[in-house]
Amino acid sequence: MKSSRIRNALAAGAAVLSMTASVLAPAPAYAQFGGIVYDPSNYSQNILTAARTLEQINNQIRALQNQATSLINEARNLQSLPLTMLAPIQQQLQQTQQLIGQAQRMAYDVQDIQTKFGQQYKSIDLTQSDRALVQGAESRWQNSVAAFEDALKVQAGAVGNIEGARTAVQSLVTASQSATGALQAAQAGNQLLALQSQQLADLTATIASLGRAQTLDAANAAAAKVQAREQLRRFLAPGRGYVPTSAQMFRN
């Protein structure tokens, strides 16, 4: 409001000075009264010139105002978001990776799975002694129990990250709504996408750990069927008969 008043005052002053200069400037005399020379044509021309000059000044002032507004908007668009949630998001991802890396007995590794699965499930030596067969069954059972324990740990980690995700979403949405420029809004959106990626990683880890446990349990059941048939065949073998012996199914 103050700047508008100052601008109008300057414009009026410029017009008065221009008109005064035009009046005082020497010009061809068409009429003279008491020593005062008055030229109506020159006076009219000076008024038109002053009006045009004033209009040009007003146009320049408006152009400068538009440029200033544009620069202010550009400066706002270049301001960075003062809030960042990348560190907590990365920390949660690292915690999930650590839980995955703590997988027991059979790791999340293709070569390790091929070796151990082939030995304990796929290529069972049915010519082994009964004691060796029982030990193999116990090892496979322990694999299933450990896999279910690993799945529970990953699920607990994913659930524990929910509170951190809720806090991050609230902070980022608030920052996005109060963003002063395009850059701040874009950065808030990027951080929300990063948070979504972290939640998808937790979901992927949970599904993978549960699928691993179920797969090992199903493989254990399939191997147990094969071993049970072999042990039944030995039990019913003609001429051998049943000889009771002490057996320990599982170790404490």
Textual characterization of the structure:
There is one protein chain. With 252 residues, the chain is an all-alpha fold. The chain folds into two domains: 2-77, no CATH class; 86-235, no CATH class. It is 76% helix and 2% strand. The protein contains six helices and two strands, in the order H-E-E-H-H-H-H-H. It has helices spanning 2-24, 40-77, 86-101, 110-122, 130-177, 182-235, and strands spanning 31-33, 36-38. It has a two-stranded antiparallel sheet. The two termini are 87 Å apart.
Topology of this structure?
Elements: H1 2-24, E1 31-33, E2 36-38, H2 40-77, H3 86-101, H4 110-122, H5 130-177, H6 182-235
Antiparallel strand pairs: 1-2
Helix pairs in contact: 1-2, 3-5, 3-6, 5-6
Largest sheet: 2 strands, antiparallel
Q: What's the total number of strands? A: 2
Q: How many domains make up the coordinates?
A: 2
Which outline best applies? Answer: rod-shaped
- Please estimate the helix content: over 70%
Summarize the helix and strand pattern as letters: HEEHHHHH
Low-confidence stretches at least 5 residues in length (pLDDT < 50)?
19-33
What would you report as the Rg, rounded to the nearest angstrom?
44 Å
Number of helices: 6
Oligomeric description of these chains: single chain
> What class, by secondary structure content?
mainly alpha
Mean pLDDT: 81
How far the N terminus sits from the C terminus, by CA atoms, comes to: 87 Å
Percentage of residues in DSSP E strands: under 5%
Strand order of the largest sheet: 1-2
